[in-house]
Fold this sequence. Notes:
Blueprint: H1 10-21, H2 33-42, H3 46-57, H4 61-64, H5 76-87, H6 89-103, H7 108-111, H8 124-146, E1 162-166, E2 183-187, H9 188-195, E3 199-201, E4 207-209, H10 219-225, H11 244-253
Helix pairs in contact: 1-3, 1-5, 1-6, 2-3, 5-6, 6-8
Amino acid sequence: MKKGQKPWTREELILAINLYWKMEFGKIHERNPEIQKFANFIGRTPGSVVFKLGNFGSFDPSLQERGVGGLKNTSKLDREIWNEFFGNLEDLSFESEKLRAQFENKTVEELNEIDLSELPKEGLVREQLVKTRVNQNFFRRAILASYKNTCCITGINHPNLLVAGHIKPWSVDEKNRMNPRNGLCLNSLHDRAFELGLITVNTDYKILVSPKVLDSMNVKTFETYFERHHNQKMILPNRYLPDPEFLDYHGETRFLK
């Protein structure tokens, strides 16, 4: 650390990881409005934020797999916070969103645009529902960022039409609910088809279409929306490549052969 620089606090680092996970790696630069906004909130320069996000990149296994390295001048606390966050995504994602809400003088519900009319007024059930929806939103942001807001099957790139789908369902694998390598960025149609086992992605990252799709669909529709994608390679993310173990699970237990 250079003379005169103030050390980063645990809270600031958790907020920085929150931003890191939800931002396209190629958009980490000083001109990015999100980085400028965050820097203003914590009283630092955009350059120092970019430097810190680059530090986290050096710990990111999804970048290491691609031979992409972050900055190397990391601190012991950087690594500790990264390991803490990466090892407990369920709790730390929610904690980071609560911290972010405090810095923006909002409630965590407001920050994540949660409809309060759908929640109990108070109590443990409300707290659990809020945490679940906040974490689902965090997961969605992380997945869409890693796929550059692009459907991995069709290339559709309108965020409002995209879904962060779980490869291994939310209800089946609690441990990997927040694992970004358990996610695919899909448009709403193909997300539903994936959920129903009408399509899958194999461990070579090729899209497979079930013959069952034709059971209740005319040939023209099948050709337009499904057959053209069969055996084609999916659009790969720039981070968080789908885990072959999860893809194998989906192919073996969910896909309709």
